[in-house]
Amino acid sequence: MLAYAKLDSPIHRLTGAAKLLFFALWSMGAMITFDTRFLVGFIVFGLVLLKVSRVRLREYSFLLYLIGAFFLLNHVAIYLFSPLEGVKIYGTKHVLLQLPGRYDLTAEQLFYQLNIALKYLAVIPIAFLFILTTDPGEFAASLNRVKVSYKIAYAVSIALRYIPDIQRDFQNISFSAQARGVDISAKEKLGKRLRNVIGILMPLILSSIERIETISAAMELRGFGRGKRRTWYKDRPFGPGDYGALAFIAVVLAALVWLTIARGSRFYNVFESPLF
What is the pLDDT, as a whole number, of residue 5? Predict the structure, then answer.
């Protein structure tokens, strides 16, 4: 699961509010455009930022598998429910493989779904960066700075802080169960493994509920929620790096909007080339 990785990098030194605004504007730009050239540029720049942050692949590899599964399911659904969407968008039809009914495989559909894939790949690195390089306390402060209720911001902060605790509790309970002969490895049959995992999850849920009650009681005793506003220990003022990052993404977003308006379409049509 994703959790904050405390490192020293230019990305980590940016404030949480700046990273939140950068991520929001970056996602907006990726949603606006279907220009393949811009999306490829987004992906390359996002991967460079991921490298600069020094965050290791193992910190988010599990989420990549889940996203990959959803990614494939999404593309299959797009083709099943709208196999000629690319033809409608680009106005031409180049059949690569004839299939029954309306399911002819066209170059336009492949190019359209390629752009959908590029949109995913453009946003994912920045999303990982935002979560993995932002301290939960500073994340809550950044949410409150952009006018989100401090109660909601604090709830999000607690949830992010709680993820490593849940992982640690699950491992401890799992090790204790395995020491008593409960097998959850691949050697056991699938049905038995699922029952054993459920047996581990129940103590985990009960311990989580107990911890939630403890935290709630502590917050209530300290008068949390009585005031309309609150201060934040992790809140930091913007620095030159923050202003530079926001200026950069603002210029990129403005260029995307201008290009979309000037061209009259969000789509880059490669099929207008003489090649086709």
Answer: 72
Domain that holds residue 217: 148-233
Domain annotation covers residue 140? no
- Phi and psi torsions of 96, nearest 5°: -95, -30
Token pair of 239, please? 């620095």
Dihedral sign computed on CA atoms, order 59, 62, 64, 70 = negative
Identify the burial level of 190 via C-beta atoms within 10 angstroms of its C-beta, where 0-12 means exposed, 13-18 middle and 19 or more buried.
exposed
Q: pLDDT for 11-44, tens place per residue?
A: 888 888 888 889 989 999 888 888 888 899 999 9
- Do 271 and 225 reside in the same domain of the chain? no
In a domain, 122, yes or no: yes
Whole-structure pTM value? 0.73
Contacts of 97 (CB under 8 A, 6+ apart): 104, 105
Share of the chain above pLDDT 70, in %: 95
Backbone angles phi, psi at 64, to 5 degrees: -65, -40
